Amino acid sequence: MTTAKVTDNPADELVAVLNKNRTAHKESSLYDNPGLACIALQYIKAYEGDCSAVGGTDAKKPPDSSFADTFAPNCGVLASSLSQITGRFLGCHSSYVDASKAFSDILMENSKSLDILYSKNHTEVGAAVTGTDGGAPYFWCVLFSNGKHNASFLFEDGVAKISRPGCFSGANDECSGANDLHQPHRLWPYAITALIAVAYGFGL
Question: How far is CA 200 from the centre of its chain?
């Protein structure tokens, strides 16, 4: 079944760019799982707007237990349907850029990023984009999984718990935050590194 995709959701646009790059590299297109994407947004929110925690010497990542204990409940995802996370991209920038530039200039930072992008272990993808308190810094997150279509990251009531601010892919949601993301905002009140990104492989 083909579902019409909304056009005003930067997270959907990010998945489209990612899948276009995979297919150009002769790899399969990945299923855009809204449950996984909602969890990607919760993953971003765990950083509480701290851009410095994304990369460098202060880099952190949420504990694995957060997926079942916090992220899944916040999205209305059944914890029993969680599947293995096989990779992730996380980027932070002091100003908003569109999906294509976020992909090429922020998330694709090195050869490790390309290895994760083209991995044959992935079957599903979910992306999320959000600003912080209505402005900078801006975060982009992509999570990959090896789950089975229609069997992983399932919503308890069939639909996601929409969490604002922020947008996530696959939900056929015109994301009320999308317009806000495209507007110029005040910069964070202290200096931020222009762009920070990390790529992690899980079980690769």
Answer: 13
| pLDDT tens, position by position, 16-36 | 999 999 999 999 999 999 999
* Distance separating alpha carbons of residues 204 and 189, to the nearest angstrom: 39
By the 8 A CB rule, do 37 and 171 touch?
A: yes
- The domains found in the chain, sorted by start residue, are 23-49+63-201 (3.40.33)
Task: In whole angstroms, give the CA distance from residue 41 to residue 33.
Answer: 13
Higher pLDDT residue, 146 or 186?
146
| Distance set, CA 186 to CA 96, 138, 144, 195 (Å) | 11, 12, 32, 17
Other C-beta atoms closer than 10 Å to the C-beta of 137 total: 26
